[in-house]
């Protein structure tokens, strides 16, 4: 089978000379951990996201867990989050000792439903971790009002939403802290695992810097139990090289998404709504009740696809007997129907049109009559 349009490619495009130059410069410096590249990237990323501080860590998972830890959240606490995301969101909550509680998603946005969050609040609830899924901002004004009303901390999972906005306001600016992943597939991707926490709270940023480095106030003086989660100098340099391209690459993602939306009007699939112009289209999902047949049809046409995500987080075996078993029927349905089409800044208009044409040509197989 000839692949005409792969789902994505991770080879550096356009920015490769800048990346190689940055890596070579770090190697020549001989400084690889907690050095000037990280400090410079933290300043630059904080500025880009409209935050006062950024703290580089080892991964997006660590970013969520460390932010919650820095807020004093742990055993005995409940943290409300979405059932529709990468499981790492909930695993990060588990790493703190807190219990993840799942509130169903809004059927239009596919992000956590504020009404479901309200219903999930108990006296043990300490925080909310909304996920800006696929690059679509969650309904942050309603979630912020809810958090304020109940006195809850809010840590935004921005791992798929670099530079997204909600109502014109940057995501990550609504809660006390925000978590970012720079996994290679993200809108801003490193060449390995990497992450960051942003915040406007100086004392929280200082605590995060201690926690990521074993709880050290200075070398060999551990004032609290911390982790080893440090964004290294090479990855920081790569991210510095790529950060100036991010806004333009997000704009290209939006243009491709608009092209898909026009081309898929009337196609035999559901295209989830764009609920905010600040959507940055980390992914472009569609929904189909005949997902397996549609996937096979696209594969036959040489189109690569992926499913994000096939199993709701509460149904993952890793959470069996740990998380509260909430009913999340919308997430269950979406997980059974969702399919991601190729969308990345290097995708050509011609390839996007080819993908859309293949989707439009899909004919659902006839259903066998009931016996």
Report on this structure.
The chain is of the alpha/beta class and 371 residues long. The chain has 2 domains: 16-244, Type I PLP-dependent aspartate aminotransferase-like (Major domain) (Aspartate Aminotransferase, domain 2, 3-Layer(aba) Sandwich), CATH 3.40.640.10; 245-360, Aspartate Aminotransferase, domain 1 (Alpha-Beta Complex), CATH 3.90.1150.10. The chain has 12 helices and 13 strands. The strands form 4 sheets. The protein has a 7-stranded mixed sheet, with helices on both faces. It has a two-stranded antiparallel ribbon with strand order 6-7. It has a two-stranded antiparallel ribbon with strand order 10-11. Helix 6 (140-150) links the parallel strand 4 (125-129) and strand 5 (153-157). The two termini are 37 Å apart.
